[in-house]
Design a protein that fits this description.
Elements: E1 2-9, H1 16-24, E2 31-32, E3 39-40, E4 43-51, E5 68-70, H2 78-84, E6 91-99, E7 104-108, E8 119-127, E9 132-136, E10 139-141, E11 149-151, E12 157-161, E13 167-175, H3 178-185, E14 192-197, H4 203-216, H5 219-230
Antiparallel strand pairs: 1-11, 1-14, 2-4, 3-7, 4-5, 4-6, 6-13, 7-12, 8-11, 8-13, 9-10, 9-12
Helix pairs in contact: 4-5
Length: about 230
């Protein structure tokens, strides 16, 4: 077993007035989230930083090796930009994500998206309401506007907006370095929750196990090998 950070609240409080003023000043068309199987209702985004500075590419990964660059919207949001700069590390996708009233994000996991795996997703709520239900690993978190949170999204999570207003968060994906480790390690214990989880088998070890099972060449070992291959 190993211990991971399930979530933590970082010691920052940001101005909701400034955040909402910048949000209201953006006139770009919101882009519907591409992962339509994972939600019902309306879930959309505005990219502040994206692959090749695209205003329509919402992918959190640079799948073709292209670079993450600030979009033209970043310079329209100097206060948000100052928040982002408080994390001195490599930044990947940075987006404004809007979950409309009545919309639901179904339970899912974002594989390897966690501090211990080298990447952290930071949320700063800009607009929210008491009827927003955010669950991570079946525990509900109450995130208020202007707060700053990290959650391990490799764990099962789901969101319901049962309120009458939009739920808009500034969401940034950052690469963990020594500065981020120091930041996370110094969060007060009362604002952090850790849990024990089973160790995951890395890809190299998994391939060795499959090779060994296939070499045994028994019906049971071959079946186990095929099941492990299917889980890649």
């Amino acid at each position: 077993m190993k211990t991971i950070i399930k979530y933590l609240q970082l010691p920052f409080t940001f101005s909701t007035d400034k955040l909402q003023a910048e949000l209201n000043g953006l006139n770009e068309q919101w882009v519907r989230h591409y992962n339509s199987n994972d939600y019902e209702g309306e879930w959309s985004a505005l990219p502040l930083r994206s692959v090749n500075a695209s205003l329509t590419n919402l992918f959190a990964e640079n799948r073709d090796g292209s670079s993450f660059l600030d979009t033209i919207l970043m310079d329209q949001c100097p206060y948000m930009k100052s928040i982002i700069r408080q994390f001195p590390c490599e930044h990947k996708a940075t987006r404004l994500l809007n979950l409309k009233p009545g919309a639901v994000i179904k339970e899912h996991r974002d594989r390897e998206l966690g501090y211990e795996a080298g990447e952290a997703r930071i949320h700063v709520p800009i607009i929210t309401n008491p009827q927003v239900e955010f669950y991570i690993d079946n525990e509900r978190l109450d995130m208020k506007a202007g707060e700053c949170w990290y959650m391990n999204f490799d764990l099962p999570h789901r969101i319901n907006n049962f309120g009458s207003t939009d739920r808009v968060h500034l969401v940034m994906d950052i690469v963990v370095n020594d500065a981020i480790r120091n930041m996370f390690e110094n969060v007060d214990a009362g604002n952090k929750k850790t849990i024990a989880v089973k160790e995951k088998i890395n890809k190299e070890d998994k391939e060795k196990i499959i090779e060994h099972l296939l070499a045994m060449n028994t019906p049971v070992s071959v079946k186990m090998a095929r099941e492990m291959q299917d889980s890649f």
